[in-house]
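We were asked to recover a plausible sequence for a given structure. The inputs and outputs are reproduced exactly as logged, with field labels preserved.

PROBLEM: sequence recovery
POSITIONS: 369
GIVEN STRUCTURE:
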């Protein structure tokens, strides 16, 4: 039987199922139980159907033109040809042709979260390698806390980090480094005279120890919220409704002082704590509105009376001055004559004397009528 092996092929000669040697390109005649199996050397991995590849190692030509590599369990093994990523190898022994190509391999231990320093960054997003990679991001306003299997390892600065997603559980918890604000809203508290108030507060703070706030406290934000609640209850519960309304600033100072006592315990620095709103029950709000309206009306009446008294006093002073000074009286009279003339179209005068005397006399007669 004639068999032709092309330039991009290799042949494996068997005699009655027993491997004899490898064959290069050329024409061959087989007979008497001999068989040639051809494979393309363009294929990266050597796979001769029905044969154990390790048997071929007995042939010197095969060993010279191939490279063997064993991928182990518990590892991510990556195969590169001439520096280009080709595939992820499964566990086991693999053989590759070396003609016109250089094979390199990268082992990643899945029991170690840290990636090798020579790990190509472009593989972070390339399947199936990306399924073995964990990405963590820390912004400029944060610090990252790195944990392996719930154990703290180190603090991470701002940046993007990649870890092996293997047998070790990797977690990165971010903590804000900037000034933070927490609102405590809708706190319903009874005053000492049994009035139910809803109070809203705001608290601003900064974290002072990024590690201990995560490793030595359980939900520091919840504890801060509880501390504000307790401070409000202590302050409001000891005072009456009217005292609460008049002591909003005092309440804010009390809350701030109570929270500052918790700073070391919670690993934070309180910048400000204040009461935003005091919300009254509907019935109390209606009563307060009624009282406010009554007060404003009373103030308006007082102002009106005061202005009336001032106006009357001014008139009285004017009358006294005119009574004592005839010239002033005459000037006042002329002032009123001028105002009347501005509103009268025509005036007819008959009689002796000057015009001003006749006009004054005429106006006086009109007043008498």
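RECOVERED SEQUENCE:
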């Amino acid at each position: 039987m004639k068999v032709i092996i092309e330039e991009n092929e290799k042949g494996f000669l068997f005699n009655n199922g027993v491997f004899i040697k490898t064959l290069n390109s050329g024409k061959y005649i087989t007979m008497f139980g001999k068989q040639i199996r051809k494979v393309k050397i363009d294929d990266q991995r050597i796979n001769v159907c029905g044969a154990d590849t390790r048997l071929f190692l007995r042939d010197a030509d095969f060993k010279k033109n191939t490279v063997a590599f064993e991928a182990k369990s518990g590892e991510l093994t990556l195969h590169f040809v001439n520096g280009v990523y080709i595939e992820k190898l499964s566990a086991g022994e693999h053989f590759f042709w070396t003609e016109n190509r250089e094979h390199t391999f990268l082992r990643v231990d899945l029991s170690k979260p840290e990636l090798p320093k020579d790990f190509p960054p472009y593989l972070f997003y390339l399947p199936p390698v990306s399924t073995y990679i964990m990405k963590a991001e820390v912004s400029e306003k944060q610090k990252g806390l790195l944990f392996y299997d719930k154990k703290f390892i180190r603090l991470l600065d701002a940046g993007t980090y990649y870890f092996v997603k293997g047998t070790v559980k990797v977690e990165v918890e971010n903590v804000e480094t900037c000034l933070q604000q927490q609102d405590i809203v809708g706190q319903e508290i009874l005053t000492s005279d049994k009035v139910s108030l809803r109070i809203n507060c705001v608290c601003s703070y900064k974290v002072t120890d990024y590690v201990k706030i995560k490793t030595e406290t359980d939900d520091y934000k919840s504890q801060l919220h509880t501390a504000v609640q307790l401070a409000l209850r202590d302050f409001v519960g000891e005072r009456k409704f009217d005292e609460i309304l008049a002591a909003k600033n005092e309440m804010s100072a009390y809350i701030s002082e109570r929270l500052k006592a918790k700073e070391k315990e919670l690993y934070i620095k309180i910048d400000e704590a204040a009461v935003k709103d005091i919300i009254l029950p509907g019935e109390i709000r209606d009563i307060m509105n009624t009282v406010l309206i009554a007060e404003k009306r009373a103030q308006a009446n007082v102002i009106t009376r005061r202005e009336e008294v001032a106006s009357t006093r001014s008139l009285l002073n004017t009358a006294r001055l005119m009574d004592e000074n005839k010239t002033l009286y005459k000037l006042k009279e002329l002032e009123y004559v001028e105002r009347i003339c501005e509103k009268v179209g025509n005036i007819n005068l008959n009689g002796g004397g000057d015009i001003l005397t006749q006009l004054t006399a005429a106006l006086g007669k009109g007043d008498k009528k």
